[in-house]
Structures are given as C-alpha cells and as structure tokens.
Design goal:
Ubiquitin-like (UB roll), 2 domains, 5 strands, globular, metal-binding
Length: about 160
C-alpha cells in the first residue's frame, strides 16, 4: 500500500508499505530520517518518540498506515530549515544533556512538546513529560537541567 502523510512540514509518500510495517521503519528506512532510534520495539524506551498530530507517540508501536493523512514531526523537524538548532536542542547541548545520544531524539521531541504545551513547567511536569523516555548514561539531572534551561530561554523570547 501507499502511505502519504506530512513529515516535518513536507508531504511524503512511501510505496509498497506492508500492513504491519511500523511508522519508525518507514521514517528511518524508506524516508531517510534516521533521527528516531530503534531500540526496544516495544514502546518501553522512548527513543523512537515522534509527534503524531502533535501528540508524542512511540513510532515503533504505530503502524505506518495509521499515519495516513496525518502530521508527523521527528527530531529532524525541530531544527530550523537552515539547520539552526531549536531552543530545546541547543539547551541540551549547552547543559551537557547528551552523552551516547541514543535516547536524545525521543527526549528532545517529548521536551519540545511539553514546552509548547506548558512554557513554564514545574520539575514534576518535566519528569512526567519525560517519563516514557529511558536514558542509561546521564542520570537524568543534566536532562532536567536542559529542559529547565530551554523553558527559561523560551520565556525570554516572549
């Protein structure tokens, strides 16, 4: 089957998609967007998190056909068209919240969604928004610092 949807603001299509093929597979292997990572394939780690119609989802659990006609934002879509990092991406760099980087795409997508919905989150809000994302390297403190920094910078821009 052919699946057509909007990815990072551009209409995309994938042909010969098998019914059970995941959105993650289509994004990575068919559309050349490797940012979302394939780790657990069970929706447990969050490394494949994308936004589907604005809602964070584990793309490994979404059948590609479910994205038909919908809007998908991947970690690649957070940066500007010229490659300029988004506020949350730059905050992760500045706060040292990136180590091995495997979990980072999912964390960035989740944090970006949180700050869009709640530009002044409490620590509890941040922890809740990121609770579906596992990191084995950082101990989470730098990640929390990064989201706080992004929130502060977002507030300065207003």
């Amino acid at each position: 089957m052919r699946v057509t949807f909007t990815v990072n603001g551009r209409e995309q299509a994938a042909d010969d998609v098998w019914e059970g093929e995941s959105l993650l597979y289509v994004l990575r292997e068919r559309l050349g967007l490797p940012g979302s990572k394939n780790a657990c394939e069970q929706g447990e780690c969050g490394s494949c998190t994308v936004r589907l119609d604005g809602v964070p989802v584990c793309s490994c659990l979404v059948a590609a056909g479910q994205a038909e006609g919908r809007d998908v934002v991947t970690v690649e879509g957070l940066a500007g068209d010229d490659g300029t990092l988004s506020t949350v991406q730059q905050a992760f760099v500045d706060a040292g919240a990136v180590q091995c980087g495997f979990c980072t795409p999912g964390l960035l997508v989740a944090a970006d969604e949180l700050l869009e919905r709640n530009p002044e989150p409490s620590d509890g809000d941040i922890r809740e928004a990121l609770s579906g994302n596992l990191c084995r390297c950082t101990g989470y403190e730098k990640i929390l610092d990064a989201v706080r920094l992004a929130a502060a910078r977002t507030g300065e821009a207003v």
